[in-house]
Write a structure and sequence with these properties.
The chain has about 280 residues and is α+β, with helices and mostly antiparallel strands. It folds into two domains: about 70 residues, no CATH class; about 140 residues, 2-Layer Sandwich (Tetrahydropterin Synthase, Chain A). It is built from seven helices and eight strands, in the order αβββαββαββαααβα.
Length: about 280
């Protein structure tokens, strides 16, 4: 057989191969959020084998849960850890703000102070959290250092006193960022303060996700700081004002006795004049 005949035969053989539709072998699974997010429905995902779904990461917006446009810039990440039938249960592994939202907060002439630290919650979950503040104008190195310390200490206090469900919601819904902003603005004017990103580093074996109590209140944390440039200047100014006021009072106290003596002398002279006039009148009579 010639080479041309062999090629034609090979082409005919290829054309006879069956085309298998991969989608026909796949099955749809429903993905649900953990209990701390009220087991909300996230979406559906196809797979030919359920073992392929384990440890798969699912990303969605907080807006999908709350339907609030103020939460459209917050991305949540969940990991599938349990499959029951066609239901996939997940655990929260972190969140992140969208890049366009972060870029919109930073302008020329401002300073961005970032703090990236690990925090351990009351029930043993360890999160790596990235938070940042944006000042109104350029800040000094000492001010940056103080602000970074505030970020760490405030988040650390919340982590020590909260379970992971409450800690996650405080990061996502902005309670922690607002607490940080109130303290930081005492050092330097701040335009924005946000918890930019979080990541679950580790968690204890056998940890169970619990439902979050929405009626639970976040108590604001306070941080004791060393005196920085602004407070030192304010204290010096107050001290000088107090010294100036005390000096003025001393001068007034010195002047008053002299004025009183002058008044007494004037009163004595007037009295003596009156007495002399009375004597003269009696003599005339």
């Amino acid at each position: 057989m010639s080479s041309r005949g062999r090629k034609k035969k090979a082409k005919r053989g290829r054309g006879r191969r069956k085309v298998v539709d991969a989608w026909k072998s796949k099955k749809w699974y429903e993905v649900y959020a953990p209990k701390s997010f009220k087991e909300a429905f996230i979406g559906q995902i196809p797979a030919s084998d359920e073992n392929e779904l384990y440890n798969r990461t699912i990303e969605c917006l907080l807006y999908d849960f709350t339907k609030n446009f103020d939460h459209a810039h917050i991305k949540l990440r969940f990991k599938i850890e349990e499959i029951i039938g066609t239901r996939c249960n997940t655990k929260f592994i972190g969140h992140e703000l969208t890049r366009d939202f972060i870029r919109a907060l930073i302008h020329r002439g401002t300073t961005r102070i970032d703090g990236v630290f690990n925090y351990k919650t009351a029930d043993g979950f360890i999160y790596r959290v990235s938070a940042f503040c944006v000042t109104v104008r350029r800040a000094k190195g000492s001010q940056k250092k103080s602000m970074r310390k505030i970020i760490y200490e405030v988040l650390n206090e919340f982590a020590k006193s909260s379970k992971h469900g409450k800690f996650v919601r405080g990061m996502i819904y902005g309670q922690f960022a607002e607490n940080i902003r109130k303290i930081v603005k005492t050092i330097y004017p701040v335009a924005e303060c946000q918890v930019r990103k979080s990541k679950l580093v580790s968690y204890p074996e056998g940890a169970i996700d619990e439902e979050y109590d929405e009626d639970e209140v976040f108590e604001e944390k306070d941080v004791k700081l060393k005196e920085h440039g602004k407070t030192v200047k304010a204290k010096k100014k107050a001290r000088k004002a107090a010294q100036r006021a005390a000096h003025q009072r001393e001068q007034q106290d010195r002047v008053r006795p002299e004025q009183d003596e002058d008044k007494d002398e004037e009163n004595g002279e007037e009295e003596s004049k009156e007495a002399m006039e009375e004597k003269e009148e009696e003599e005339v009579k």
